[in-house]
Every structure is written in structure tokens, then in C-alpha cells.
């Protein structure tokens, strides 16, 4: 697995703070890294993946503000330039995705088409 200094995605300050909070919880598996990716499905065709996972053979590794991240190399074409944010409001709470590669995004913001 290769490591790169150019990150294919970015995290806002809010997302970084929330991810660090999650990583600091009791019982967090320190061998896991943050996985960013896509999978088929969702109302617009593809859904985002954001969660903690083990590194896989075909992963590209990168780091953002001390957070070790991985992405399957084949997912970069769909996600390059995407920004992940964290909203902590009364009406909206959770991670959001701003993807310049999406030609269409569903109303819930968790799936997209290219």
C-alpha cells in the first residue's frame, strides 16, 4: 500500500473534531482507520461509505489532521475533491458530503449519480 501527501477528499474542522471524538471513545479499535468510499445503491445510484475499517490490499492511504484514512483506488474517480462535513444542529445532525463529481444528489444527501 502506497501513501500519498495529496488527499483525494477533505474534512472540515467540524468533521475532524467529530472523528477525533469518535476515535477517543472507550473501546475504539486503534487498528482501524477511517474508510471513505462508495457502494452501489441508494436512491441516486451510489451511496457514500464513511466508517472505521481495516486497511485492504487495494487501498490508497492518506492522512488528514492526524486521522489515518484509506480509500479503494477505484473509488477516487467518484470522490476526488469531495468535502466531508459534520452538522450538529437541531434539524440536521450527521456527516454530509459535498461532491463535485456528482451529477445528481438525492434529497437526503447520502447517495449520488455520476
UniProtKB/TrEMBL annotation:
<feature type="domain" description="Core">
    <location>
        <begin position="9"/>
        <end position="109"/>
    </location>
</feature>
<dbReference type="Pfam" id="PF01521">
    <property type="entry name" value="Fe-S_biosyn"/>
</dbReference>
<dbReference type="InterPro" id="IPR016092">
    <property type="entry name" value="ATAP"/>
</dbReference>
<dbReference type="InterPro" id="IPR017870">
    <property type="entry name" value="FeS_cluster_insertion_CS"/>
</dbReference>
<dbReference type="InterPro" id="IPR035903">
    <property type="entry name" value="HesB-like_dom_sf"/>
</dbReference>
<dbReference type="InterPro" id="IPR031108">
    <property type="entry name" value="IscA_plant_cyanobact"/>
</dbReference>
<dbReference type="InterPro" id="IPR000361">
    <property type="entry name" value="ATAP_core_dom"/>
</dbReference>
<protein>
    <submittedName>
        <fullName>Iron-sulfur cluster assembly accessory protein</fullName>
    </submittedName>
</protein>
Amino acid at each position: 500500500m502506497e501513501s500519498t501527501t495529496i488527499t483525494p477528499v477533505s474534512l472540515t474542522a467540524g468533521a475532524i473534531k467529530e472523528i477525533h471524538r469518535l476515535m477517543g471513545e472507550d473501546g475504539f479499535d486503534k487498528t482501524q482507520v477511517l474508510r471513505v468510499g462508495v457502494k452501489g445503491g441508494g436512491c441516486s445510484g451510489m451511496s457514500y461509505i464513511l466508517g472505521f475499517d481495516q486497511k485492504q490490499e487495494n487501498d490508497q492511504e492518506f492522512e488528514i489532521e492526524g486521522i489515518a484514512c484509506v480509500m479503494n483506488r477505484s473509488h477516487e474517480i467518484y470522490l476526488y475533491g469531495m468535502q466531508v462535513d459534520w452538522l450538529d444542529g437541531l434539524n440536521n445532525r450527521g456527516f454530509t458530503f459535498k461532491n463535485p463529481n456528482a451529477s445528481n444528489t438525492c434529497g437526503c444527501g447520502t447517495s449520488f449519480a455520476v
